[in-house]
Specification:
Chain B: GO terms for molecular function: oxidoreductase activity, acting on the CH-OH group of donors, NAD or NADP as acceptor. The complex is a heterodimer of chains A (256) and B (239). Chain A has 256 residues and is of the alpha/beta class. Chain A has a single domain, classed as Rossmann fold, CATH 3.40.50. Helices cover 40% and strands 14% of the residues of chain A. A 7-stranded parallel sheet of chain A has the order 3-2-1-4-5-6-7, with helices on both faces. In chain A, strand 1, helix 1 and strand 2 form a beta-alpha-beta unit. Chain A is globular, with a radius of gyration of 17 Å. Chain A starts with 11 loop residues before the first strand and ends in a 12-residue tail after the last strand. Chain B has 239 residues and is α/β, with parallel strands linked by helices. Chain B has 9 helices and 7 strands. Chain B is globular, with a radius of gyration of 17 Å. The chains are: A alpha/beta (256), B alpha/beta (239).
Chain lengths: 256, 239
């Protein structure tokens, strides 16, 4: 396992770290002895994971779409730890709807949380990351960032935007010792997808049928892909979006 | 519970080249039994514990029988199949002869078909296959049309085969950029600092850095990654 190569980091900041993929990242890092700071909505869903972590766990209430709040939260982490070297941007929400009638506030919320939130967190993390000399950002794209999907225009656009942002930061910040990559998960068993399924907005069967591995991912599997990119095992990998989708987007099944 | 690495077997073609050797070292350190398949053994010294788990078998990518002999040397079950054998011929397109074209395609692409085909009945239910493509397979490479075509061909092979492996068997690729090894020496010498100037990380990669990504793909940490091609290029492709 690549985690054998994990250097002891100064610490990892995880946005949206209280549920789903972000929470799986937090649990895996805490389990391996690393420091973890979770930024999440003060009154959002999910629970904290930090019991028994001997002061290695910080939790800060923060809306990532609020640039000043993000800057303040990351300054707090910087002060408490003296720095950090990993940033994982996994905060996300869902507001599906038909494009012809999509309310402006839904569009703006999706773009603000996913794309702007990722940008603000990267921006606020820059002083700590560049000071570490060997830092890594991992952003969360999605297979939705690469495929057309009905009723997901805002999500698709925001995720495709995150891949563009990832490539630009990779090129711009490499001289500062910061690698920047993204993971594009396929469908994952999280409270996010379960809620969509229960609301009738997500039919799991055709997705499983179109996935060569014939299943949804577990959050821990996506976390491992993220932690690989954050680790020294990926030291020459930057600007890459790692698709972890069980083969879904390759989609040769239409043919036969 | 997943099968532990000390019960697993890897076959590495091109196992005596720089990337192949780095992959073998990494997998041996995890306790994996490694069969290195190559034209000739390299001179190297392995730690005693690793030497027990390592074997070399003669492998000629241009000999259709060689693939069958190689998988037979691995035993009944193959867990990791790393196909790193390849050549990197340099020739302007107008001067590529039919023979040179065919030879390049045979070694870099057809031999991969032969190896996977021969290995299929022995692949573990959660086996991981890793192809070594190249930045040239994605972007093309002036003066290496046959090489680029063979490396792009690997990606087409991967994206089709991923539907036919079944179970939790996975196939992925890595696409190195410019790695500091003997294969790229002529290119690096001819390029001066032009490649480094357009590589955001400002350096060439190492064989160990390619092996680290291959090692990740050959691990349970990559259990939902299937049909993916990971670029290892210091941002060169991005720029």
């Amino acid at each position: 396992m690549s985690t054998e190569n994990h250097r002891q980091p100064l610490g990892a900041v995880i946005t949206g770290g209280r549920s789903g993929i972000g929470r799986a990242c937090a649990e895996a890092l805490l389990g391996r002895g690393h420091r973890v700071a979770v930024l999440d909505l003060p009154d959002g869903p999910g629970t904290a994971t930090g019991s028994g972590t001997q002061g290695r766990f910080l939790q800060l209430g923060c809306d990532v779409s609020d640039r000043e709040a993000v800057a303040e939260a990351l300054a707090t982490v910087h002060d408490r730890w003296g720095g950090f070297d990993v940033l994982i941007n996994s905060a996300g929400i869902a507001r599906p709807g038909p494009s012809q009638t999509l309310p402006a506030q839904d569009w703006e919320l999706m773009v603000n949380v996913h794309l702007s939130g990722t940008m603000w967190a990267c921006q606020a993390a820059f002083p700590a990351l560049s000071a570490s000399g060997r830092a890594a950002i991992v952003n969360l794209s999605s297979v939705a960032g690469r495929m057309g999907m009905p009723h997901r225009a805002s999500y698709n656009a925001a995720k495709a935007g995150i891949e563009g942002l990832t490539r630009s930061l990779a090129v711009e910040w490499a001289p500062h010792g910061i690698r920047c990559n993204a993971v594009a998960p396929g469908y994952v068993e999280t409270s996010f997808t379960e809620a969509l399924a229960e609301a009738g907005q997500l039919d799991k069967r055709p997705i499983i049928q179109r996935t060569p591995l014939r299943r949804f991912a577990r959050p821990a599997e996506i976390a491992e892909a993220i932690l690989f990119l954050a680790s020294p095992a990926a030291s020459f990998v930057t600007g890459h979006t790692l698709v972890a989708d069980g083969g879904l987007t390759v989609d040769g099944a239409w043919y036969g | 519970m997943a099968v532990q690495d000390h019960q697993r077997t890897a076959v590495v073609t091109g196992g005596e080249g720089s990337i192949g050797q780095a992959v073998a070292r990494l997998l041996l350190a995890r306790g994996v039994r490694v069969v290195s398949a190559d034209l000739a053994p390299a001179h190297r010294r392995l730690p005693a514990g690793d030497a027990e788990n390592f074997s070399y078998t003669g492998y000629d990518a241009q000999d259709p029988e060689s693939a069958r002999a190689t998988v037979a040397a691995a035993g009944e079950r193959i867990d990791y199949l790393v196909l790193a054998a390849g050549i990197y011929p340099a020739r302007g397109f107008a001067d590529i002869s039919e023979d040179e074209w065919q030879g390049c395609l045979e070694i870099n692409l057809t031999a991969v078909y032969r190896m996977i085909n021969a290995a299929l009945p022995r692949l573990a239910p959660d086996a991981s296959i890793v192809l070594v493509s190249s930045i040239a397979g994605l972007r093309g490479s002036k003066g290496h049309a046959h090489y680029a075509a063979s490396k792009a061909g690997l990606l087409g092979l991967m994206r089709s085969l991923m539907w036919e492996l079944g179970g939790q068997r996975r196939i992925n690729a890595v696409s190195p950029g410019i790695i500091d090894n003997p294969m790229t020496r002529p290119l690096r010498e001819a390029a001066g600092d032009t490649i480094l100037r357009s590589t955001p990380l400002g350096r060439y990669g190492t064989a160990d850095e390619v092996a680290a990504v291959i090692g990740f793909l050959c691990s349970p940490a990559a259990s939902f990654i299937h049909g993916e091609n990971i670029s290892i290029n210091g941002g060169f492709y991005v720029n």
